[in-house]
Amino acid sequence: MKYRTLSGLLALSLLFGCSSSEEVVPDIPAAELYSEAQDALRSGNWFSAVEKLEALDSRYPFGAYSEQVQLDLIYAYYKNNDLPLGLATIERFIRLNPTHDKIDWVLYMRGLTYMAQDRSWMHDLFNTDRSDRDPEPAKSAFADFKRLLQRYPNSPYAADAKERMVALKNRLANYDLATADFYLRREAWIAAINRCQEIQKTYPDTIAAKESLNIQLEAYKQLGIKEAIQRTEELIRLNPL
Protein backbone atom coordinates (compact mmCIF):
# COMPACT_ATOMS: atom_id res chain seq x y z
CA MET A 1 0.00 0.00 0.00
CA LYS A 2 2.79 2.35 0.97
CA TYR A 3 4.57 1.55 -2.32
CA ARG A 4 1.43 2.38 -4.31
CA THR A 5 1.04 5.69 -2.47
CA LEU A 6 4.62 6.69 -3.22
CA SER A 7 4.23 5.67 -6.84
CA GLY A 8 1.07 7.72 -7.13
CA LEU A 9 2.74 10.77 -5.63
CA LEU A 10 5.68 10.39 -7.98
CA ALA A 11 3.42 10.12 -11.02
CA LEU A 12 1.44 13.17 -9.84
CA SER A 13 4.59 15.22 -9.32
CA LEU A 14 5.84 14.28 -12.78
CA LEU A 15 2.49 15.28 -14.26
CA PHE A 16 2.58 18.68 -12.58
CA GLY A 17 6.24 19.03 -13.53
CA CYS A 18 5.44 18.44 -17.20
CA SER A 19 2.47 20.77 -17.22
CA SER A 20 4.42 23.54 -15.49
CA SER A 21 7.37 23.21 -17.87
CA GLU A 22 5.06 24.05 -20.76
CA GLU A 23 4.42 27.42 -19.12
CA VAL A 24 8.10 28.27 -18.55
CA VAL A 25 8.14 30.63 -21.53
CA PRO A 26 5.02 32.84 -21.38
CA ASP A 27 3.01 33.59 -24.49
CA ILE A 28 4.13 37.18 -25.02
CA PRO A 29 4.73 39.23 -28.20
CA ALA A 30 7.71 38.19 -30.31
CA ALA A 31 9.54 41.48 -29.78
CA GLU A 32 9.27 41.20 -26.01
CA LEU A 33 10.34 37.55 -26.00
CA TYR A 34 13.29 38.33 -28.27
CA SER A 35 14.36 41.15 -25.95
CA GLU A 36 14.28 38.75 -22.98
CA ALA A 37 16.34 36.22 -24.94
CA GLN A 38 18.94 38.88 -25.68
CA ASP A 39 19.08 39.81 -21.99
CA ALA A 40 19.69 36.15 -21.12
CA LEU A 41 22.48 35.92 -23.73
CA ARG A 42 24.16 39.07 -22.44
CA SER A 43 24.04 37.83 -18.85
CA GLY A 44 25.37 34.38 -19.77
CA ASN A 45 22.18 32.63 -18.69
CA TRP A 46 22.45 30.09 -21.49
CA PHE A 47 19.68 27.78 -20.30
CA SER A 48 17.16 30.60 -20.18
CA ALA A 49 18.40 31.94 -23.51
CA VAL A 50 17.91 28.53 -25.13
CA GLU A 51 14.37 28.23 -23.76
CA LYS A 52 13.31 31.64 -25.01
CA LEU A 53 15.00 31.27 -28.39
CA GLU A 54 13.49 27.83 -28.92
CA ALA A 55 10.07 29.30 -28.12
CA LEU A 56 10.62 32.04 -30.67
CA ASP A 57 11.85 29.56 -33.25
CA SER A 58 8.81 27.30 -32.85
CA ARG A 59 6.18 30.03 -32.51
CA TYR A 60 7.46 32.38 -35.22
CA PRO A 61 9.45 30.25 -37.70
CA PHE A 62 9.01 32.83 -40.47
CA GLY A 63 8.95 35.95 -38.33
CA ALA A 64 11.08 39.06 -38.49
CA TYR A 65 13.60 37.58 -36.05
CA SER A 66 13.78 34.11 -37.66
CA GLU A 67 17.34 34.16 -39.04
CA GLN A 68 18.84 35.98 -36.05
CA VAL A 69 17.08 33.63 -33.65
CA GLN A 70 18.70 30.66 -35.36
CA LEU A 71 22.11 32.33 -35.20
CA ASP A 72 21.60 33.09 -31.52
CA LEU A 73 20.48 29.50 -30.92
CA ILE A 74 23.67 28.19 -32.50
CA TYR A 75 25.71 30.21 -30.01
CA ALA A 76 23.47 29.46 -27.02
CA TYR A 77 23.49 25.73 -27.74
CA TYR A 78 27.29 25.80 -27.93
CA LYS A 79 27.65 27.67 -24.64
CA ASN A 80 25.07 25.42 -22.96
CA ASN A 81 26.89 22.33 -24.25
CA ASP A 82 23.85 21.21 -26.26
CA LEU A 83 26.19 20.18 -29.06
CA PRO A 84 23.96 17.86 -31.15
CA LEU A 85 21.20 20.49 -31.15
CA GLY A 86 23.76 23.11 -32.16
CA LEU A 87 24.96 21.02 -35.10
CA ALA A 88 21.39 20.35 -36.22
CA THR A 89 20.59 24.08 -36.11
CA ILE A 90 23.75 24.86 -38.07
CA GLU A 91 22.84 22.35 -40.78
CA ARG A 92 19.35 23.79 -41.05
CA PHE A 93 20.64 27.37 -41.24
CA ILE A 94 23.17 26.54 -43.98
CA ARG A 95 20.54 24.65 -45.96
CA LEU A 96 18.06 27.54 -45.78
CA ASN A 97 20.55 30.41 -46.04
CA PRO A 98 23.53 29.25 -48.15
CA THR A 99 24.53 32.81 -49.15
CA HIS A 100 23.94 34.53 -45.81
CA ASP A 101 26.52 37.16 -44.95
CA LYS A 102 27.32 35.35 -41.68
CA ILE A 103 28.01 31.94 -43.18
CA ASP A 104 31.70 32.35 -42.28
CA TRP A 105 30.70 32.66 -38.61
CA VAL A 106 28.38 29.65 -38.93
CA LEU A 107 31.23 27.54 -40.35
CA TYR A 108 33.46 28.78 -37.53
CA MET A 109 30.85 27.82 -34.93
CA ARG A 110 30.45 24.37 -36.47
CA GLY A 111 34.20 23.89 -36.14
CA LEU A 112 34.06 24.99 -32.50
CA THR A 113 31.13 22.68 -31.84
CA TYR A 114 32.95 19.69 -33.30
CA MET A 115 36.01 20.60 -31.22
CA ALA A 116 33.82 20.67 -28.12
CA GLN A 117 32.52 17.20 -29.01
CA ASP A 118 36.11 16.00 -29.15
CA ARG A 119 36.82 17.30 -25.65
CA SER A 120 35.88 15.72 -22.35
CA TRP A 121 35.73 17.79 -19.17
CA MET A 122 36.95 14.75 -17.22
CA HIS A 123 40.05 14.52 -19.38
CA ASP A 124 40.62 18.28 -19.02
CA LEU A 125 40.15 18.09 -15.25
CA PHE A 126 42.68 15.29 -14.74
CA ASN A 127 44.89 16.26 -17.69
CA THR A 128 44.42 12.77 -19.13
CA ASP A 129 46.06 11.88 -22.42
CA ARG A 130 43.40 10.27 -24.60
CA SER A 131 45.13 10.30 -27.96
CA ASP A 132 43.39 7.04 -28.77
CA ARG A 133 39.82 8.40 -28.59
CA ASP A 134 37.66 8.62 -31.71
CA PRO A 135 39.13 11.38 -33.93
CA GLU A 136 36.06 11.93 -36.15
CA PRO A 137 34.88 15.15 -34.40
CA ALA A 138 38.44 16.54 -34.65
CA LYS A 139 38.55 15.66 -38.35
CA SER A 140 35.22 17.40 -38.92
CA ALA A 141 36.41 20.50 -37.03
CA PHE A 142 39.63 20.60 -39.05
CA ALA A 143 37.64 20.32 -42.30
CA ASP A 144 35.34 23.20 -41.30
CA PHE A 145 38.19 25.52 -40.34
CA LYS A 146 39.99 24.64 -43.57
CA ARG A 147 36.82 25.37 -45.54
CA LEU A 148 36.48 28.71 -43.74
CA LEU A 149 40.03 29.72 -44.67
CA GLN A 150 39.58 28.67 -48.29
CA ARG A 151 36.24 30.40 -48.83
CA TYR A 152 36.60 33.39 -46.55
CA PRO A 153 40.33 34.16 -46.10
CA ASN A 154 39.54 37.70 -44.94
CA SER A 155 36.98 36.62 -42.35
CA PRO A 156 37.52 38.00 -38.84
CA TYR A 157 37.45 34.37 -37.66
CA ALA A 158 40.14 33.17 -40.07
CA ALA A 159 43.13 33.84 -37.80
CA ASP A 160 41.65 31.93 -34.86
CA ALA A 161 40.57 29.10 -37.15
CA LYS A 162 44.14 28.82 -38.44
CA GLU A 163 45.52 28.53 -34.91
CA ARG A 164 42.96 25.90 -34.01
CA MET A 165 43.92 23.89 -37.10
CA VAL A 166 47.45 23.59 -35.70
CA ALA A 167 46.13 22.10 -32.46
CA LEU A 168 43.80 19.79 -34.36
CA LYS A 169 46.59 18.64 -36.64
CA ASN A 170 48.65 17.65 -33.62
CA ARG A 171 45.63 15.91 -32.11
CA LEU A 172 45.06 13.86 -35.28
CA ALA A 173 48.75 13.06 -35.65
CA ASN A 174 48.89 11.85 -32.04
CA TYR A 175 45.91 9.59 -32.68
CA ASP A 176 47.71 7.98 -35.63
CA LEU A 177 50.86 7.67 -33.52
CA ALA A 178 48.91 5.85 -30.79
CA THR A 179 47.52 3.55 -33.48
CA ALA A 180 51.00 2.84 -34.87
CA ASP A 181 52.23 2.04 -31.35
CA PHE A 182 49.27 -0.30 -30.88
CA TYR A 183 50.21 -2.16 -34.06
CA LEU A 184 53.82 -2.37 -32.89
CA ARG A 185 52.82 -3.88 -29.55
CA ARG A 186 50.64 -6.38 -31.39
CA GLU A 187 53.61 -7.26 -33.60
CA ALA A 188 51.77 -6.09 -36.71
CA TRP A 189 55.00 -4.74 -38.19
CA ILE A 190 53.74 -3.81 -41.67
CA ALA A 191 50.65 -2.09 -40.31
CA ALA A 192 52.83 -0.08 -37.89
CA ILE A 193 55.16 0.97 -40.70
CA ASN A 194 52.29 1.98 -42.97
CA ARG A 195 50.69 4.11 -40.25
CA CYS A 196 54.02 5.77 -39.45
CA GLN A 197 54.59 6.64 -43.09
CA GLU A 198 51.06 8.05 -43.29
CA ILE A 199 51.82 10.33 -40.33
CA GLN A 200 55.04 11.53 -41.95
CA LYS A 201 53.23 12.25 -45.20
CA THR A 202 50.09 13.89 -43.78
CA TYR A 203 51.51 15.68 -40.72
CA PRO A 204 55.22 16.18 -41.53
CA ASP A 205 55.67 19.23 -39.28
CA THR A 206 54.42 17.61 -36.06
CA ILE A 207 56.25 16.05 -33.11
CA ALA A 208 54.28 12.87 -33.77
CA ALA A 209 55.88 12.59 -37.22
CA LYS A 210 59.34 12.59 -35.62
CA GLU A 211 58.30 10.15 -32.91
CA SER A 212 56.84 7.81 -35.51
CA LEU A 213 60.34 7.24 -36.90
CA ASN A 214 61.28 5.33 -33.76
CA ILE A 215 58.28 3.02 -34.13
CA GLN A 216 59.07 2.60 -37.80
CA LEU A 217 62.69 1.76 -37.00
CA GLU A 218 61.69 -0.92 -34.48
CA ALA A 219 59.28 -2.49 -36.96
CA TYR A 220 61.95 -2.61 -39.65
CA LYS A 221 64.36 -4.20 -37.19
CA GLN A 222 61.82 -6.88 -36.37
CA LEU A 223 61.44 -7.56 -40.10
CA GLY A 224 65.21 -7.49 -40.62
CA ILE A 225 65.11 -5.10 -43.59
CA LYS A 226 68.62 -3.63 -43.37
CA GLU A 227 68.32 -0.97 -46.05
CA ALA A 228 65.11 0.38 -44.53
CA ILE A 229 66.72 0.34 -41.08
CA GLN A 230 69.64 2.44 -42.30
CA ARG A 231 67.34 4.87 -44.12
CA THR A 232 65.15 5.32 -41.03
CA GLU A 233 68.16 5.81 -38.75
CA GLU A 234 69.33 8.57 -41.08
CA LEU A 235 65.91 10.20 -40.93
CA ILE A 236 66.04 10.12 -37.14
CA ARG A 237 69.47 11.75 -37.20
CA LEU A 238 68.19 14.51 -39.52
CA ASN A 239 64.99 15.05 -37.50
CA PRO A 240 65.94 15.07 -33.80
CA LEU A 241 63.19 15.50 -31.22
User: Cα distance, first to last residue?
Assistant: 72 Å
Q: Would you list the SSEs in sequence order as H and E?
A: HHHHHHHHHHHH
Enumerate how many helices there are, as a single number.
Answer: 12
The chain-level mean pLDDT equals: 88
User: What are the segments in which pLDDT stays under 50 over at least 5 consecutive residues?
Assistant: 1-22
Radius of gyration: 25 Å
Subunit arrangement of the protein: single chain
Reported for the largest beta sheet, the result is:
none
Shape: elongated
Percentage beta strand: under 5%
The assigned structural class equals mainly alpha
Helicity level? over 70%
Strand tally is 0
What is the gist of this entry?
The protein has helices at residues 2-21, 30-43, 46-59, 66-79, 83-96, 103-118, 121-126, 136-151, 158-185, 189-202, 207-223, 226-238. It has 241 residues and is mostly helical.
What does this structure look like?
With 241 residues, the protein is mainly α. The protein contains 12 helices and no strands. It has helices spanning 2-21, 30-43, 46-59, 66-79, 83-96, 103-118, 121-126, 136-151, 158-185, 189-202, 207-223, 226-238. α3 runs antiparallel to α4 (66-79) and α8 packs antiparallel against α9.
Secondary structure layout:
Elements: H1 2-21, H2 30-43, H3 46-59, H4 66-79, H5 83-96, H6 103-118, H7 121-126, H8 136-151, H9 158-185, H10 189-202, H11 207-223, H12 226-238
List keywords for this structure.
12 helices, disordered N terminus, mainly alpha, 241 residues
